Every structure is written in structure tokens, then in C-alpha cells.
Design the sequence.
């Protein structure tokens, strides 16, 4: 039936959106309690047990704050920028698989993988294409605010984004060579089994330099410390976010957390084996296999989200010239070296 | 269904390219062009060329137009003049010529027999990426290496031309 | 896949080309002229793609579709290079004349 396929896609999309949009308040809580843990203090503990209702209260605060639009801003672009940030971040998620379907069928229709767009053969390229449109959100936010500090923050943020986009893309090329396909489901399946008999065949083991380059580049792409100079509160008066308040600010932050979640999902899929366990070969079928794969994937993504928070509250911030020098003079050559290593290894039959 | 999506994408492309040449604020011109390139990438994807669609968005919308935006902000160009202001005769003649050219090409094209397009060679076998990759590093290797040189020459000349004179 | 007649794609390419030409002829601001030029380049790309789509399964022309797509790839690359150099030229022009109005770049007039 023609509606079965649409219903299956709709269910997968609803699952993905539920995961992404609930990650945002959970991350707010994790960020605040995690930073308190690292900084040896308590963190929010008044609103509900262990402060678990703190994100709810934060959301109410943000919604009821005064929606201030300064006088001389370019209104259309001022409103467009946060909308674009959130839309772009959410749109990249449809090409990321979050589980193994294990031959599951729903309404007589094979699910074809827990990925909203299973036929997208250019999987990872689509993600990079949509993510490269996110530059416009930051640069337009900075420019339309009609404020020198915002403009500095916006230009710096976009320069940082496009510089690290290059390192990110080249470090992924090694993964694609090892997998032989751009489709992320294939990339996960190529990481099954072991390498050199002992290590799991995850790409973090076979291409360690590429994994590290990708992780650093992803930190820079999502504007997280140590690369958050453009939006840091002690520099540039909060950079390109200075003039934003209430729901537009909330939209920017939702966009950033969703982007962070998609980045964690990408790290899991590309370098850490997706939904497979290291040496154990789980081969459940049907519902059990699907649920098990989604839970394993979720656990790995949760670890990476904690890793984002952990690094944020541990490392100091880079100065902008240090950041750009690192991006162009260190990250790009390292990722090219990784790419050479993968090519040589495949030619020699090691990989 | 595919035809309707194509018509919508084509209408969006034409409308926003008119915005791109007619609006007064240069930033809005660049943003309209982003929408035009996105619509064109959609048309590429509809015709089965998914790799080209992704490359179009990554390179054109995501890099070239960002460069345009940076230069507009660097030179602080606030708003530009109205289309064809101050030179009415030239403006009229130019517009007439261009529109006439457009009509002539459309008329010539409509005399062609609309043969049905078929599935592209790569659509079944995992996409066009494999075929394009093999061709770029195989039969078209010289052009691929040469365009690397073109890009390096462009980078070097851009850096040289835009440098500040340090005297 | 065979639901879109390739002549429609060619017609769209022609319309975009003429819109781009109008922009190039009528604007005075150098960056606006360059944007219209990009529209024209894209319309040429669309024409290549239309023909690649048309000759995709033609028996004697295997490789036509691939050649069309490769040509578009190279045109996009060359357009990127040209945009970089052109914008650097505009920056240099602005530094010299304090404006990028092409009517004012007339030092070499006879």
C-alpha cells in the first residue's frame, strides 16, 4: 500500500525528532550539573530532585522574557538567523542512521534501516552540504545586529566554521575509503569484525589520526569550547548573540545543542562502530535486535555528549589567531596524512 | 509528482533570481542567490544527479556565496542603486536584448523532440559518485590535476591582489 | 526518472540566462554584476545537466551522461577560482577608488 511507506518514514522521523528535541533540555541539565561536578560545587538542586526540573524552569524563563528587537537592526535578517540555525541543524539529522533494523517489518514494509532517508546514496555529503549552510546563520546574526561586537563575533564564527569544515571533510574521506560507500549504513557495517586479530575494526583504531582530527574539527564546528571565542561571554560581550533575547536566543541554543547531538551521532557512526559492540557479535533479529542496536547507539552518543561537556569545562579557550593557525596549519595537514595512510593501507592490504 | 516538484523548483529559481538582480540591498541579493542555487541543486537531484546536487550546495552556496558575503561586509556596501538608474536608453536596450535572447532560445528549444529521459547509468548501482570518482581519477585525470593548479593559481593571485600595501 | 521532459530544463536554463544577462547589463555595482554572472554560469550548468539527462541511455553515446556531469563539476571548480580572483580585484579597486561603481573605474578611458 502506498501509505505504508509514508507511515514508516513518518514514524522514523518522529522517533528522530523526539530524540533530538528531548536531548536539548537534558543537555541543559547535564551541562549545569556536570560543570558543577567538575568545578567542585553543587549546581542547581532546588527545582525538583537533583535539579531535574531546571530545564523546564529555564524554558519558561526564556519564553516569558521580553522579546527585545533593537531599533536599527535589519528586522528580516535578525529574525531569519536563529530560524536558519535551528532549521539547518535539524535538517542534517535525516541522513544519520540510529539503529539496525535487523530485518524488521512494519505494516508489511521492510524498514530499511533506522534512517529517515534510506535511499540517500550520498549520505555524508548531504550532511556536509546542509551543515555548510549553517555559516549563514552566524554571519547574518552578527551583521544584522548593527553592533560592532556582534559583527566581529559573527565574522570570526563563520571564518572558524569554514576553516574547520575543510579538516572535517578530509578526515572523513579516509573513513569513506575504508567503507567503500558514502551511505552511512554501509560505513557502520564496514566496521564489524576485528583488525589485526585483536582490535575491533572501528575506524578509531584503524585511523586514529583521522578520528582525532574529526573530533577537534567537530568541536570547532559546533562552536564549543575550546573554540567558542565567537560566543564567549567574557570576550566580545557574547559575540554574535549579544542582541538576541528570549525565544530567538533559545532558538540559537537549541540549534547549537541539536548540532552537537548530530555531531556526536556522526562521531559514533563514522569512527566508533555505530551500534555494534566491540568484540561481541550480537545477531538478534526483529524487535530485539532493533531495540538493542538503538540502545547501544544511544549509550555511545550519550558518552560523546558528556565528552563535549567534559572538554568544555576542562580546557581554556583558544585565541582567535591560535584557532585559525591550528585549523589551517595543523588540522588540514594531519587529515591529509591520515588520508594517505588509509590509501596506503588499503593498497597494501592491511586495511 | 516529480513534474510538480520540478515546476515548483523552477518557479522558485526564476523568482529568486529576479530578486537577486533587482533588490537594492546586496546582502539580500546574495541570500536570494543562495535560494536559487538550492533550487538548482534540487533540480539536479530530481534529474538523478545527486553528487552534483551536493557539490553545488557545498561549493556554490556554502563557499562562494559566503565569500561574496564577506567581501560585501568588508567593503561595507550598504545599498545599491536601482536597476538601470540614470541610463534609461541603455537600460531599455539591454533589457530588450536579453529578454529577446531568452525568448529566442526558448523558441528554439521547443522545436526539439522531447525524448523521454531515461535512468542515469549510476542510479541503480549505488549512485553516481562511484562513476564520477572513477572517471575523475581515471579517464579525466589530467583535467582533475589541472583544475588543482587553477585553484592554487587563483588562491595565490587573490592573496596577492588583496594584500595591504606595506610601505 | 522520465517524468521531466529535458526541453523544460533547457527552457529554464534559457530563462535564467536571460535574467542573468539583464543583471549584468543593467547593474552598476561590481558585486551585483558578479552575482548576475554567477546566475549565467549556473544556467550553463543546467543546460549541461539537461543534455546529460537526455542522452543518458542512448545506445551509441555511453559516457555522455558522465561527461556532462564531469563538465558541470569542472565548471563549478573554475567558477570558484574566478570568484576568488574577481572579489580580490574588487577589494583592490575599492582600496583605490573608494567605491566599486564600475562607471567610476574609468582611468584607462581613451
Sequence:
Amino acid at each position: 500500500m502506498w501509505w505504508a511507506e509514508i507511515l514508516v518514514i513518518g514514524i522514523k522521523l518522529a522517533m528522530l525528532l523526539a530524540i533530538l528535541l528531548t536531548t536539548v533540555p537534558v543537555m541543559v541539565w547535564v551541562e549545569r550539573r556536570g560543570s558543577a561536578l567538575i568545578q567542585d560545587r553543587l549546581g542547581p538542586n532546588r527545582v525538583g530532585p537533583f535539579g531535574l526540573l531546571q530545564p523546564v524552569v529555564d524554558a519558561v524563563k526564556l519564553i516569558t522574557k521580553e522579546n527585545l528587537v533593537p531599533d536599527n537592526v535589519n528586522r528580516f535578517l535578525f529574525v531569519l538567523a536563529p530560524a536558519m540555525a535551528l532549521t539547518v541543524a535539524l535538517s542534517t539529522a535525516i541522513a544519520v542512521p540510529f539503529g539496525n533494523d535487523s530485518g524488521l517489518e512494519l505494516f508489511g514494509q521492510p524498514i530499511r534501516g533506522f534512517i529517515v532517508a534510506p535511499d540517500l546514496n550520498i549520505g555524508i555529503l548531504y550532511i556536509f552540504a546542509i551543515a555548510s549552510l549553517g555559516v549563514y546563520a552566524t554571519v547574518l546574526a552578527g551583521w544584522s545586529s548593527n553592533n560592532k561586537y556582534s559583527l566581529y563575533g559573527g565574522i570570526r564564527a563563520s571564518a572558524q566554521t569554514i576553516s574547520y569544515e575543510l579538516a572535517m571533510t578530509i578526515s572523513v574521506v579516509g573513513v569513506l575509503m575504508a567503507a567503500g560507500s558514502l551511505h552511512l549504513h554501509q560505513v557502520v557495517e564496514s566496521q564489524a569484525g576485528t583488525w589485526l586479530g585483536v582490535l575491533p575494526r572501528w575506524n578509531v583504531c584503524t585511523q586514529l589520526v583521522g578520528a582525532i582530527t574529526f573530533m577537534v574539527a567537530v568541536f570547532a564546528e559546533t562552536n564549543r569550547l575550546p573554540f567558542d571565542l565567537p560566543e564567549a561571554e567574557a570576550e566580545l560581550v557574547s559575540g554574535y548573540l549579544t542582541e538576541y533575547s528570549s525565544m530567538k536566543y533559545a532558538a540559537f541554543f537549541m540549534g547549537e545543542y541539536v548540532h552537537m547531538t548530530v555531531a556526536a551521532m556522526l562521531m559514533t557512526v563514522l569512527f566508533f562502530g555505530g551500534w555494534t559492540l566491540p568484540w561481541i557479535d550480537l545477531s538478534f533479529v526483529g524487535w530485539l535486535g532493533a531495540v538493542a542496536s538503538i540502545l547501544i547507539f544511544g549509550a555511545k552518543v550519550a558518552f560523546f555528549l558528556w565528552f563535549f561537556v567534559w572538554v568544555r569545562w576542562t580546557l581554556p579557550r583558544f585565541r582567535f589567531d591560535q584557532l585559525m593557525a591550528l585549523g589551517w596549519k595543523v588540522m588540514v595537514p594531519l587529515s591529509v596524512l591520515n588520508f594517505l595512510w588509509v590509501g596506503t593501507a588499503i593498497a597494501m592490504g592491511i586495511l | 509528482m516529480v513534474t510538480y516538484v520540478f515546476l515548483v523548483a523552477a518557479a522558485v529559481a526564476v523568482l529568486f533570481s529576479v530578486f537577486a538582480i533587482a533588490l537594492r540591498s546586496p546582502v539580500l541579493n546574495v541570500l536570494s542567490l543562495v535560494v536559487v542555487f538550492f533550487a538548482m541543486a534540487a533540480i539536479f537531484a530530481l534529474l538523478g544527479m545527486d553528487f552534483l546536487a551536493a557539490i553545488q550546495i557545498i561549493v556554490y552556496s556554502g563557499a562562494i556565496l559566503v565569500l561574496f558575503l564577506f567581501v560585501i561586509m568588508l567593503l561595507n556596501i550598504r545599498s545599491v542603486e536601482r536597476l538601470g538608474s540614470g541610463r534609461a536608453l541603455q537600460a531599455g536596450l539591454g533589457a530588450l536584448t536579453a529578454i529577446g535572447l531568452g525568448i529566442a532560445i526558448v523558441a528554439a528549444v521547443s522545436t526539439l523532440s522531447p525524448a523521454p529521459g531515461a535512468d542515469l547509468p549510476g542510479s541503480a548501482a549505488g549512485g553516481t559518485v562511484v562513476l564520477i570518482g572513477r572517471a575523475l581519477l581515471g579517464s579525466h585525470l589530467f583535467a582533475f590535476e589541472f583544475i588543482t593548479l587553477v585553484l592554487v593559481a587563483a588562491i595565490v593571485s587573490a592573496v596577492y591582489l588583496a594584500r595591504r600595501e606595506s610601505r | 526518472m522520465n517524468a521531466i521532459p529535458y526541453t523544460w530544463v533547457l527552457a529554464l536554463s534559457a530563462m535564467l540566462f536571460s535574467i542573468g544577462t539583464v543583471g549584468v547589463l543593467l547593474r552598476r555595482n561590481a558585486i551585483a554584476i558578479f552575482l548576475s554572472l554567477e546566475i549565467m554560469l549556473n544556467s550553463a550548468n543546467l543546460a549541461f545537466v539537461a543534455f546529460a539527462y537526455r542522452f543518458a541511455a542512448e545506445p551509441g553515446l555511453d559516457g555522455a551522461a558522465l561527461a556532462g556531469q564531469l563538465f558541470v563539476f569542472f565548471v563549478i571548480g573554475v567558477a570558484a577560482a574566478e570568484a576568488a580572483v574577481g572579489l580580490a580585484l574588487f577589494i583592490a579597486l575599492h582600496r583605490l577608488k573608494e567605491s566599486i561603481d564600475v562607471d567610476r573605474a574609468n582611468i584607462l578611458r581613451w
